[in-house]
Amino acid sequence: MNDLCADIGFQSINHDGEQLCGDHVDVVEQNDDSMVVVLADGLGSGVKASILSTLTSKIISTMMAEGLSLSDCVETIAQTLPICSVRGVAYSTFTILHLVGNSEMELIQYDNPLTILLRNGQNYDYPKTEMVIGGKKIYHSLLKLQEDDIFIAMSDGCPHAGIGLAYNFGWKRSDIIAFMEAVSVAGYTAKTLSTMLIDEVNKLYGYHPGDDATAYVLKIRKRIPMNILFGPPRDRDDCNRMMALFFSKEGKHIICGGTTSSIAAKYLGKKVEVDISFVKSDVPPIARIEGVDLVTEGVITVSRVVEYAHDVLGENRLYEKWGFGRDGVSLICRMLFEEATDITFYVGRAVNPAHQNPDLPINFNIKMNLVEELSVCLRQMGKRIKVSYF
After folding, report:
1. Residue 319 CB: number of other CB atoms within 10 A?
2. Where are the alpha helices (DSSP H) in 149-238?
């Protein structure tokens, strides 16, 4: 096992006037270090295309994750998909990214735009072997991975962008490569890179897309651990044990909650210093404890982090709010969403008397639900999550 992991993210826009996207992405984890990702583009657009692409991605990702051969997957697709009464064909193009042990990438491509690989910030022309399976020409590649490799898979709605508007023949692959080379050097996450690419595609379409467009980005990076302490333990006698476990772990340390930070400061023999510098924000101010990377308020701050986490997994429209802010919520978001890969929660089960006021919308269950909800979101971002309760 190496110390590499995959940062993943994708973004889509629908054909103008359609409620459903004709592209579909499916991710199946085989274990902590291996996964199968399928980006499928259904024939046409709308409901029919959505059904075709969903069927294709689900069938291929499930079969490959179970170890079946590529030929079996393709033949199953050919026999499963319904025939289009208008065109007389039934298919969904697809790109398969099979991450093996965080050390190798098996790349399988059928009729989608060729996947772009950026290595050392530049386009890398990786080797491709042409195969014919079930009458379909398929490209197969097997690559050894390097840190900071960035794979960019897309549906044909991306290179078709701008036809008849910004460009006569669409957004050429070489132009997409140049665009992604320029933005990739800034160190953005996979989700942000996919969002930037699709935003540019949407702009080239004049914000009226003539086709469904999806970009899937997979970025290879080193593992970075992070630790979060949220709430005091139910039993006061567990304070030292909880603090000892928390501070003994490798990586950065975040503390959420006033009482929690007081306990941590006492354990470290330090003072809690509230940051009185004015920051225009609708969230509580942060504090400082020597030896701790970030100290914030508890429930209100974490609830806003959860709100932003849901947006990251969706349209990612609130990035500028947390991506550049200096308030506690923005700082936590950047540390969890962009920096961390392995996150450990240390959650205290003590009931805060201040939260028992019936006039306040905060109670013990909400606190536990926030941890669970945030954990689910972070797992969907590809993070390893562990939660310990005290």
Report:
1. 20
2. 173-184, 190-204
Question: Using an 8 Å Cβ cutoff, are 375 and 1 in contact?
Answer: no
Task: Please give the Cα distance from 46 to 23 (Å, whole number).
Answer: 10
What are the φ/ψ torsions at residue 262 (nearest 5 degrees)? -65, -40
Q: pLDDT value at position 33?
A: 84
Is 218 in contact with 36 (CB distance < 8 Å)? no
Q: Which neighbouring-strand residues pair with 227?
A: 253, 344
Across 109-127, average pLDDT: 95
Tokens of 254: 């975040």
Domains annotated for the chain, with CATH where assigned, are 4-222 (3.60.40.10), 225-389 (no CATH)
Q: Which two tokens stand for residue 281?
A: 């924000």
Residue 378 three-state SS: helix
CA 101-104-109 angle, to 5 degrees, is 120
Report the C-alpha gap between 358 and 356 in whole angstroms.
6
Q: Is the pTM of this model over 0.70?
A: yes
pLDDT digits (tens, 9 = 90+) for 235-255: 888 999 999 999 999 999 999
How many C-alpha atoms does 6 have within 13 Å on its Cβ side? 29
C-alpha 145: how far from chain center: 19
Beta strands, E only, the chain: 4-13, 23-31, 34-42, 92-100, 104-110, 116-119, 122-123, 129-133, 136-144, 150-154, 213-222, 225-230, 252-256, 273-274, 287-288, 294-296, 342-347, 384-389
Token look-up 């099979």 returns 98
> Residue 211 CA to chain centroid, in angstroms?
24
Between strands 122-123 and 116-119, the pairing is: antiparallel
Q: Read off the tokens for 166.
A: 């910004």
